[in-house]
Design a protein that fits this description.
Jelly Rolls; EC 5.3.1.8; zinc; alpha+beta; 18 strands; about 30% strand; 2 domains; zinc ion binding; PMI_typeI_cat; 6-stranded antiparallel β-sheet; isomerase; about 325 residues
């Protein structure tokens, strides 16, 4: 799946299963007779869902757990979290996350209400920076009913808040909890709809199933810059996923990009206008917002009619 995202209201916290676990979960829910369109169904198919995104603007996201030192600092500096310090010291990331995710609605509200009352006025007065978890926690609360506080607020404080600049990329592998907070990006992912949610959503959150799949260890965000190709026109954002490969093609007026497709490819024009030629000479014009499918084993040329930016989705070469 290949799409352009414009994130204004933050998206839900998500974790995706491995291929093996997706196959098991899909089979299990089929055997239980859970309809594919049931709201409480976790596995809509038997595939994994690795994802990669390239920022089209300044982009903010949650991505994996903070390192132990940073998380200890959060727990000790936020008054509402100090009671969680012994749990983290004894039971680590799993114990900490399980404790807050298994709270009753009343327990969550009682714990987080003083935090909400403290940060929301600061947010409304514009006194919080986007690097501060309080900013995103308050933004999440400000868009809903603060009498029912989402457990995802804990995750905003426990996870890395990552700022990605235009042209940089982040890969989301199985088990890494993440959420897109704000900005525009190009996103490419495996063909799956398997999402285990962890908050910031009114949709179904299956805590026991979620806990089976989260990677309970520190994540140091890896910001991908992409690898410039020898033609000087293409930059490939490589990832461990065997399912896909994403690249950016940047052309100035009269530049010509040449390629041979080893597999099917999708081109999306983000800026400008180009002419796409197939090897036998037929051509089509593509402008901003238009896309084209390139079949496998084709030679083609992209000729810029103005300065242009395209993104290409394909699979890694063997």
């Amino acid at each position: 799946m290949f799409k352009v995202l414009d994130v204004n209201d933050m998206l839900s916290i998500q974790v995706h299963p491995t291929k093996v676990e997706a196959e098991k979960g899909f089979k299990r829910e089929n055997e239980l007779g859970i309809p594919l369109n049931a709201s409480h169904r976790n596995y809509k198919d038997d595939n994994h869902k690795p994802e990669i995104m390239v920022a089209l603007s300044e982009f903010w996201l949650l991505h994996g757990f903070l390192t132990e030192d940073k998380l200890r600092n959060v727990l000790s500096s936020v008054p509402e979290f100090t009671d969680l310090i012994p749990i983290f010291e004894k039971e680590g990331y799993l114990g900490l996350y399980r404790t807050v995710m298994e709270q009753t609605e009343e327990e969550t509200n009682n714990t987080l209400k003083p935090l909400v009352d403290r940060i929301l006025p600061l947010y409304k007065k514009g006194e919080l920076s986007k690097s501060d978890p309080a900013y995103w926690a308050a933004k999440a609360i400000d868009t809903g009913d603060d009498s029912v506080i989402d457990k995802g607020i804990y995750s905003i404080y426990f996870f890395n808040i990552v700022k990605v600049e235009k042209g940089e990329a982040v890969f989301q592998d199985a088990g890494i909890p993440h959420a897109y907070l704000e900005g525009q990006n190009m996103e490419l992912m495996a063909n799956s709809d398997n999402v285990l949610r962890g908050g910031l959503t009114p949709k179904h959150v299956d805590v026991p199933e979620l806990l089976k799949h989260v990677t309970f260890e520190a994540t140091v965000p890896n910001i991908l810059k992409g690898e410039a190709q020898s033609d000087g026109l293409e930059r490939i954002y490589k990832s461990p996923a065997p399912d896909f490969e994403l690249s950016q093609i940047k052309l100035t007026n009269q530049d010509v990009y040449k390629s041979n497709s080893h597999s099917a490819q999708i081109l999306i024009v983000l800026e400008g206008e180009v002419e796409l030629f197939e090897e036998e000479g037929a051509s089509i014009n593509l402008s901003k917002g238009q896309s084209a499918l390139i079949l496998a084993n084709c030679s083609y040329i992209i000729a810029a009619k103005s300065s242009a930016i395209l993104f290409k989705a394909t699979t890694p070469e063997a």
